[in-house]
Amino acid sequence: MAQYKEGTPFGIIMRALGDLITLNIMWLVCSAPVVTLGASTTAMVSTMFKRRRYHGVPVIKTFIKEFGKNFRKATIINLVFLALVAIAVGDYIFVFSQATGAVYYLYLGVASVAAISALLILTFAYAQLSVFENKVKNYIKNSFILAVIAPGRLLQCWIYFLIPWGILFLVWHPFDFLVYFGAFYLIWGISGPAYLSVMVLEKVFARFGYEKEPDEPVDK
Q: Is residue 28 part of a domain?
């Protein structure tokens, strides 16, 4: 089995940080067309699962392979995600600019349901696609089921993505916040929280047959 020689603790940390920087940049570049957001997210998360499972997989090669492998299903899921985001944004804009009375609460409810649905798909659907073989509709359906089964894990994943905003907002005043926040997101802003989320999702998926220990070699 081809595995990365662990080396010193410092070397392990530097390797991990370097891999996260690489994945973050690749995600940003490959997500730029927006329509490829799903494929790039799935590729990043899948690479992280494999990295934790097999230790030291080549992240660039693995990312590219997973991007192509899951492109069709990930793109379909992404279209559903983007549609929900569009509904949520459009309804929120209407709610806070024009709606009054019963219409206000109706559109607020629709917007909130769409926003939460989009977040559930973003949290669970792409990760499922990374490790399980299934139909697209089942990835989406199971995202809602997983939210009911593991609400604590779901909240934990969301917190990981909110922490960078909170820390940077408290440390720097508004102008510097934008500067440093932008720099942080170019380096680890997506891949860092995503990696922590993968660690959480391993425990969730373990209930459904996912095993962290490798059962077959991975070619370098």
A: yes
State residue 212 phi and psi, 5-degree precision: -70, -35
Give the separation between CA 23 and CA 158, rounded to whole angstroms.
20
Dump pLDDT digits (tens) for 30-73: 999 999 999 999 999 999 999 988 877 899 999 999 999 999 99
Burial 202-217 (b: 16+ CB within 10 A, else e): bebbeeeebeeeeeee
C-alpha dist (Å) from residue 209 to 75, 129, 167 = 25, 14, 36
Q: Residue 56, by phi and psi: left (phi above 0), alpha (psi -120 to 50) or beta?
A: left
Which range marks the domain in which residue 61 is found? 9-208
pTM: 0.85
From CA 105, how far away is CA 8, in angstroms rounded? 57
Token pair 């799903």 is at which residue? 38
Sign of the C-alpha dihedral, residues 191, 193, 199, 203?
Answer: negative
Distance of CA 60 to the CA centre of its chain: 17
The total number of structural domains in the chain stands at 1
Is the separation of the CB atoms in 195 and 18 below 8 Å? no
Which amino acid is it at 195? Y
In a domain, residue 2? The reply is no
Residues 111-121 pLDDT 10s: 999 999 999 99
Weakly modelled stretches of the chain, pLDDT under 70: 1-7, 168-182, 184, 213-220
